[in-house]
Fold this sequence. Notes:
The protein has one domain (about 10-205). It has helices at about 30-35, 45-50, 60-70, 100-110, 125-135, and strands at about 10, 20, 85-90, 115-120, 140-150, 165-170, 200-205. α3 packs across α4. About 30% of the residues are buried. Helix content is about 25%, strand content about 15%.
Amino acid sequence: xxxxxxxxxxxxxxxxxxxxxxxxxxxxxxxxxxxxxxxxxxxxxxxxxxxxxxxxxxxxxxxxxxxxxxxxxxxxxxxxxxxxxxxxxxxxxxxxxxxxxxxxxxxxxxxxxxxxxxxxxxxxxxxxxxxxxxxxxxxxxxxxxxxxxxxxxxxxxxxxxxxxxxxxxxxxxxxxxxxxxxxxxxxxxxxxxxxxxxxxxxxxxxxxx
Length: 209
């Protein structure tokens, strides 16, 4: 069996014990535009920018290889990684680069039907294009989470963007405290984001990096 060229990261900290296919935030035009925009968004305090420009700078090379590989061509069947994890994450670092990147993610999901995949993205434009032109329905083993860029603006379930299963929202520490359900625990002990049928509204307090 040919080893897939896709780099899989083993996560630490909050995401300890989970694995992810990610890309390089630092060279992502969308991420940089959001990070440097005048509007106040969660991207202003992006953990990935802080880590990849700091103590995780050595990770940029492998993440950049993923950026190039996943965004420039569609992977062949032999290039798709075989994943045995129960749950798996896309975009622990980085954001969707283009439609080829998204189509490669869908191919990986279909190639590994026994794993539940969760994709975080702010790119509603690409998700809408995917379902308009490329995909009639989402694979059963995939959860789409809209990563809300606006701080202190929880998206109610009835306003969740089309095609998404959940929203991930950030609030200041003193705001909406009873609704903060992603604070103080590791993902492996919670799995709200990695389970179908749980709350569609995830709320975390803003962290400083």
